[in-house]
Design a protein that fits this description.
- This protein is an alpha/beta fold.
- The chain has a single domain, classed as Vaccinia Virus protein VP39 (Rossmann fold), CATH 3.40.50.150.
- The protein contains six helices and seven strands, in the order ααβαβαββαβαββ.
- It has a seven-stranded mixed β-sheet.
- A hairpin with a 7-residue loop joins strand 6 and strand 7.
- Helix 1 runs parallel beside helix 4.
- The chain is globular, with a radius of gyration of 16 Å.
- It binds S-adenosylmethionine (SAM).
- The site of S-adenosylmethionine has 20 residues, from helix 1.
Amino acid sequence: MSPSGHDHSHDHAHFDAAASTWDADPAKLERARATAVLLRDTLGLTGTERVLEIGGGTGQLSIALADHVGSVLVTDASPGMVDVARSNIESAGLADRLTVERLDLVTDPPPQGSFDGVWAQLALHHVRDVGVLLQRVKALLSPGGWVAVVELDDDRAGAFHANYENFTGHDGFDRTSFANLLRDSGFHDVSVVDAGSVEKELGGDHQGRGTFATFLAVGRA
Ligand SMILES: C[S@@+](CC[C@H](N)C(=O)[O-])C[C@H]1O[C@@H](n2cnc3c(N)ncnc32)[C@H](O)[C@@H]1O
Protein backbone atom coordinates (compact mmCIF):
# COMPACT_ATOMS: atom_id res chain seq x y z
CA MET A 1 0.00 0.00 0.00
CA SER A 2 1.11 3.53 -0.69
CA PRO A 3 1.16 6.26 1.96
CA SER A 4 -2.10 7.56 0.48
CA GLY A 5 -3.75 4.20 1.12
CA HIS A 6 -4.08 3.03 -2.51
CA ASP A 7 -2.48 -0.14 -3.75
CA HIS A 8 -1.41 -0.85 -7.32
CA SER A 9 -4.74 -2.46 -8.27
CA HIS A 10 -6.22 1.04 -8.36
CA ASP A 11 -4.55 1.90 -11.67
CA HIS A 12 -5.59 -1.45 -13.12
CA ALA A 13 -9.25 -0.76 -12.37
CA HIS A 14 -9.15 2.63 -14.09
CA PHE A 15 -7.45 1.28 -17.22
CA ASP A 16 -9.37 -2.03 -17.26
CA ALA A 17 -12.55 0.02 -17.51
CA ALA A 18 -11.09 2.30 -20.20
CA ALA A 19 -9.57 -0.47 -22.35
CA SER A 20 -12.51 -1.44 -24.56
CA THR A 21 -13.24 2.13 -25.72
CA TRP A 22 -9.63 3.46 -25.73
CA ASP A 23 -9.14 3.09 -29.49
CA ALA A 24 -12.48 4.77 -30.29
CA ASP A 25 -10.80 8.14 -29.62
CA PRO A 26 -9.16 9.19 -32.92
CA ALA A 27 -6.78 11.48 -31.00
CA LYS A 28 -5.22 8.43 -29.32
CA LEU A 29 -4.62 6.63 -32.64
CA GLU A 30 -3.22 9.80 -34.20
CA ARG A 31 -0.98 10.26 -31.18
CA ALA A 32 0.45 6.71 -31.54
CA ARG A 33 1.16 7.33 -35.24
CA ALA A 34 2.88 10.66 -34.57
CA THR A 35 5.05 9.15 -31.84
CA ALA A 36 5.95 6.24 -34.13
CA VAL A 37 7.26 8.67 -36.77
CA LEU A 38 9.23 10.61 -34.14
CA LEU A 39 10.80 7.45 -32.68
CA ARG A 40 11.70 6.14 -36.15
CA ASP A 41 13.40 9.42 -37.02
CA THR A 42 15.14 9.80 -33.66
CA LEU A 43 16.32 6.27 -32.86
CA GLY A 44 17.74 5.19 -36.23
CA LEU A 45 16.01 1.82 -36.08
CA THR A 46 17.65 -0.99 -38.08
CA GLY A 47 14.77 -3.47 -38.23
CA THR A 48 16.47 -6.01 -35.97
CA GLU A 49 15.98 -4.58 -32.48
CA ARG A 50 14.40 -6.55 -29.65
CA VAL A 51 12.20 -3.94 -27.93
CA LEU A 52 10.24 -3.84 -24.67
CA GLU A 53 7.26 -1.51 -24.36
CA ILE A 54 6.14 -0.41 -20.90
CA GLY A 55 2.50 0.59 -20.30
CA GLY A 56 1.69 -0.16 -23.93
CA GLY A 57 -2.08 0.09 -23.40
CA THR A 58 -3.91 -1.18 -26.48
CA GLY A 59 -0.63 -1.74 -28.37
CA GLN A 60 -1.07 0.97 -31.02
CA LEU A 61 2.44 2.46 -30.75
CA SER A 62 4.22 -0.88 -31.15
CA ILE A 63 1.82 -1.90 -33.93
CA ALA A 64 2.76 1.31 -35.79
CA LEU A 65 6.48 0.52 -35.34
CA ALA A 66 6.33 -3.25 -35.96
CA ASP A 67 7.84 -3.02 -39.47
CA HIS A 68 10.85 -1.07 -38.18
CA VAL A 69 12.17 -3.40 -35.45
CA GLY A 70 12.78 -7.12 -34.98
CA SER A 71 10.25 -7.77 -32.23
CA VAL A 72 8.40 -6.07 -29.39
CA LEU A 73 7.28 -7.42 -26.05
CA VAL A 74 4.32 -5.15 -25.24
CA THR A 75 3.68 -5.03 -21.48
CA ASP A 76 1.03 -3.33 -19.37
CA ALA A 77 -0.12 -3.62 -15.75
CA SER A 78 -3.81 -3.70 -16.71
CA PRO A 79 -5.29 -7.10 -17.70
CA GLY A 80 -8.03 -5.29 -19.66
CA MET A 81 -5.47 -3.36 -21.73
CA VAL A 82 -3.46 -6.53 -22.32
CA ASP A 83 -6.54 -8.31 -23.73
CA VAL A 84 -7.28 -5.44 -26.14
CA ALA A 85 -3.61 -5.20 -27.20
CA ARG A 86 -3.48 -8.93 -27.92
CA SER A 87 -6.61 -8.78 -30.04
CA ASN A 88 -5.36 -5.66 -31.93
CA ILE A 89 -2.03 -7.39 -32.66
CA GLU A 90 -3.75 -10.54 -33.90
CA SER A 91 -6.10 -8.51 -36.14
CA ALA A 92 -3.08 -6.65 -37.57
CA GLY A 93 -1.43 -10.01 -38.39
CA LEU A 94 1.59 -9.10 -36.26
CA ALA A 95 1.49 -11.89 -33.67
CA ASP A 96 4.75 -13.33 -35.05
CA ARG A 97 6.68 -10.20 -34.02
CA LEU A 98 4.62 -8.60 -31.26
CA THR A 99 3.88 -10.47 -28.04
CA VAL A 100 1.89 -9.19 -25.07
CA GLU A 101 2.36 -9.80 -21.38
CA ARG A 102 0.67 -8.41 -18.26
CA LEU A 103 3.57 -6.94 -16.35
CA ASP A 104 4.33 -4.18 -13.88
CA LEU A 105 8.10 -3.79 -13.86
CA VAL A 106 8.03 -2.16 -10.42
CA THR A 107 6.31 -5.06 -8.64
CA ASP A 108 6.70 -8.14 -10.89
CA PRO A 109 9.81 -10.17 -11.76
CA PRO A 110 11.45 -8.84 -14.97
CA PRO A 111 10.97 -10.55 -18.34
CA GLN A 112 13.59 -13.03 -19.57
CA GLY A 113 16.63 -11.93 -21.54
CA SER A 114 17.84 -8.50 -22.54
CA PHE A 115 16.54 -5.81 -24.91
CA ASP A 116 18.08 -3.41 -27.42
CA GLY A 117 15.51 -0.73 -26.63
CA VAL A 118 12.62 0.19 -24.36
CA TRP A 119 9.85 2.63 -25.26
CA ALA A 120 6.96 4.02 -23.23
CA GLN A 121 4.33 6.59 -24.16
CA LEU A 122 2.39 8.45 -21.42
CA ALA A 123 2.87 5.54 -19.01
CA LEU A 124 5.62 6.65 -16.65
CA HIS A 125 3.55 9.43 -15.08
CA HIS A 126 1.43 6.64 -13.59
CA VAL A 127 4.44 5.11 -11.85
CA ARG A 128 5.06 6.70 -8.50
CA ASP A 129 8.73 5.76 -8.18
CA VAL A 130 9.97 6.43 -11.70
CA GLY A 131 13.62 6.17 -10.54
CA VAL A 132 13.14 2.54 -9.49
CA LEU A 133 11.44 1.74 -12.80
CA LEU A 134 14.24 3.37 -14.81
CA GLN A 135 16.89 1.40 -12.91
CA ARG A 136 15.02 -1.83 -13.75
CA VAL A 137 14.87 -0.72 -17.39
CA LYS A 138 18.59 -0.03 -17.41
CA ALA A 139 19.27 -3.54 -16.05
CA LEU A 140 17.26 -5.07 -18.92
CA LEU A 141 19.11 -3.23 -21.71
CA SER A 142 22.12 -4.55 -23.57
CA PRO A 143 25.12 -2.18 -23.59
CA GLY A 144 24.44 0.72 -25.97
CA GLY A 145 20.71 0.05 -25.81
CA TRP A 146 18.29 2.96 -25.50
CA VAL A 147 15.27 4.02 -23.53
CA ALA A 148 12.77 6.36 -25.23
CA VAL A 149 10.10 7.95 -23.06
CA VAL A 150 7.27 10.18 -24.30
CA GLU A 151 5.74 12.10 -21.43
CA LEU A 152 3.57 15.04 -20.51
CA ASP A 153 5.28 18.29 -19.77
CA ASP A 154 4.76 19.70 -16.31
CA ASP A 155 0.96 20.08 -15.82
CA ARG A 156 0.94 22.05 -12.58
CA ALA A 157 -2.79 22.70 -12.73
CA GLY A 158 -3.43 18.94 -12.77
CA ALA A 159 -5.91 19.44 -15.64
CA PHE A 160 -4.82 16.32 -17.54
CA HIS A 161 -5.87 14.02 -14.73
CA ALA A 162 -8.83 16.03 -13.44
CA ASN A 163 -11.20 13.25 -14.61
CA TYR A 164 -9.17 10.55 -12.93
CA GLU A 165 -10.41 9.65 -9.47
CA ASN A 166 -7.73 9.14 -6.83
CA PHE A 167 -4.88 9.80 -9.27
CA THR A 168 -1.62 8.96 -7.49
CA GLY A 169 0.87 9.54 -10.33
CA HIS A 170 2.73 12.63 -11.59
CA ASP A 171 1.10 15.71 -13.15
CA GLY A 172 3.65 15.60 -15.95
CA PHE A 173 7.40 16.13 -15.56
CA ASP A 174 9.77 19.02 -15.72
CA ARG A 175 12.13 18.21 -18.65
CA THR A 176 15.34 19.03 -16.81
CA SER A 177 14.33 16.97 -13.78
CA PHE A 178 13.39 14.04 -16.01
CA ALA A 179 16.73 14.18 -17.83
CA ASN A 180 18.49 14.18 -14.45
CA LEU A 181 16.39 11.21 -13.33
CA LEU A 182 17.59 9.31 -16.41
CA ARG A 183 21.22 10.20 -15.63
CA ASP A 184 20.78 9.23 -11.95
CA SER A 185 19.37 5.88 -13.13
CA GLY A 186 22.57 5.17 -15.08
CA PHE A 187 21.73 6.46 -18.58
CA HIS A 188 24.08 8.66 -20.60
CA ASP A 189 23.82 10.75 -23.80
CA VAL A 190 20.44 11.96 -22.55
CA SER A 191 18.49 14.18 -24.94
CA VAL A 192 15.05 15.76 -24.66
CA VAL A 193 13.03 17.12 -27.61
CA ASP A 194 9.46 18.30 -28.25
CA ALA A 195 7.07 15.47 -29.04
CA GLY A 196 4.00 17.47 -30.11
CA SER A 197 0.88 17.62 -28.02
CA VAL A 198 -1.90 15.42 -26.79
CA GLU A 199 -5.57 16.40 -26.77
CA LYS A 200 -7.95 15.33 -24.11
CA GLU A 201 -11.44 15.95 -22.78
CA LEU A 202 -11.11 17.85 -19.51
CA GLY A 203 -13.04 17.28 -16.31
CA GLY A 204 -13.54 18.60 -12.80
CA ASP A 205 -13.32 22.39 -12.74
CA HIS A 206 -11.86 22.47 -16.26
CA GLN A 207 -14.11 22.90 -19.31
CA GLY A 208 -13.94 21.45 -22.85
CA ARG A 209 -10.92 19.89 -24.52
CA GLY A 210 -7.36 20.67 -23.54
CA THR A 211 -4.08 20.48 -25.43
CA PHE A 212 -1.04 19.30 -23.48
CA ALA A 213 2.58 19.54 -24.60
CA THR A 214 4.76 16.42 -24.49
CA PHE A 215 8.47 15.63 -24.76
CA LEU A 216 10.56 12.69 -25.90
CA ALA A 217 13.51 11.82 -23.65
CA VAL A 218 16.12 9.35 -24.89
CA GLY A 219 19.00 7.88 -22.93
CA ARG A 220 21.66 5.25 -23.69
CA ALA A 221 22.50 2.32 -21.43
C1 LIG B 1 -2.31 6.83 -20.29
S1 LIG B 1 -2.19 5.11 -20.63
C2 LIG B 1 -1.16 5.10 -22.07
C3 LIG B 1 -1.33 3.85 -22.90
C4 LIG B 1 -0.56 3.87 -24.23
N1 LIG B 1 0.87 3.91 -24.00
C5 LIG B 1 -1.00 5.04 -25.06
O1 LIG B 1 -0.21 5.98 -25.22
O2 LIG B 1 -2.15 5.02 -25.54
C6 LIG B 1 -1.13 4.50 -19.35
C7 LIG B 1 -0.93 2.99 -19.40
O3 LIG B 1 0.09 2.62 -18.45
C8 LIG B 1 -0.33 1.46 -17.77
N2 LIG B 1 0.34 1.44 -16.46
C9 LIG B 1 0.09 2.23 -15.38
N3 LIG B 1 0.94 1.93 -14.38
C10 LIG B 1 1.73 0.93 -14.85
C11 LIG B 1 2.81 0.19 -14.29
N4 LIG B 1 3.24 0.41 -13.05
N5 LIG B 1 3.40 -0.76 -15.07
C12 LIG B 1 2.97 -0.99 -16.33
N6 LIG B 1 1.96 -0.32 -16.91
C13 LIG B 1 1.35 0.62 -16.18
C14 LIG B 1 -1.83 1.57 -17.68
O4 LIG B 1 -2.44 0.32 -17.47
C15 LIG B 1 -2.17 2.20 -19.04
O5 LIG B 1 -2.42 1.22 -20.02
